[in-house]
């Protein structure tokens, strides 16, 4: 009974994880607006209750992935302990260094340990076919909601058809949703902002692409088309680059398989047909939108005029300066901001309201994002922590490629999905500095499941 409860909560967590467009629960900190996290937390609590009753839990301690992850967690703690003097004196935005470490470390434990163990215990009694089809179905249903919402938002935001806004407002009655328009020329769908929508699309892209491998009929292309359209209209530069890179990987997979090579041709024909229809009905709007997307990818060219780019590159530059001063062990987990705020370059802060009103404003409690997990870890955990994370990334991709080469059926399809997911999510860490990326930990749990020929529950 308990297992059924936390399994149901797990799938609800997957369905609701992109839903963060609501006020949220403040005391949950980073997870306050994460609807999916609420179900996963409840699922983990039921798992703990099962442990109390049965005295059993599955912990994949023999897995190299789990071992590397554990070493990383330990090093994050050690690097902070080695900097205890500075950590204890750090203070900014009404938050002390020790308090900041506890909150950040606990957030890492929730995503990378508690949720990971929940995923593993859900998977231990599921065969690979169940894992593939049930997870994909949960993501598909959320994509349906995101697509309907997104389509209505496109009509309002891109084409100015405000008469459909009352229909869009009906989504206010949907759980964990408060209807907002991201802004003229951008959509966020069921997510809070376009970048969060992009993370969701990057996470599920491989799963939706896989319909082409397993299903029949023309409808199997629809999930892929939905992913591409939502990515395009989201206005997220990173999302556009990463999702199309994932699509390139998937296209390569199809082209190498004689059974699916023809789909590459069909997909190209379908894309050009859809694009032609859009040009016929509203060519000026589509051409303008496409031009803006291409221009937005010129990060260097936009650096002078794009506030967002200036902030991102400025934050990353400051983190690297902190790393140069503390190259071996860093300044302690969660401590980046206390040190990097003295290294913000003038070219990033000059005429940049984000620094004046938010990042350097002591009265705004939210901490400035590092905008890059890799530069953040270099600053906080030094080269040692950075190399541990790289080891995890390298092993994950290497093991996934081995499974692709040496397996068939559901195991091979899951391996394809993992390769696409890892590629997108690890690249996405170049522009976001949080471990609260559910797709990575989910993919790692699936990879550990694929690595086990026989599943046993540890006493």
Automatic annotation (TrEMBL):
The keyword Transmembrane appears for this protein: yes
Which key words tag this protein in UniProt?
Answer: Membrane, Transmembrane, Transmembrane helix
* Recorded superkingdom: Bacteria
Which Pfam families does this UniProt record tie to the protein?
Wzy_C
Q: Which residues cross the membrane?
A: 37-53, 65-85, 105-126, 138-161, 196-213, 225-250, 262-281, 377-397, 413-429
- Where does the record say this protein resides? Membrane
The protein's matches in InterPro entries, at most eight in alphabetical order, are given as:
O-antigen_ligase-rel_domated, WaaL-like
Q: How does it sit in the membrane?
A: Multi-pass membrane protein
Q: Residue ranges of the O-antigen ligase-related domain?
A: 225-390
What is this protein's name?
O-antigen ligase-related domain-containing protein
Q: Does this entry carry the keyword Cytoplasm?
A: no
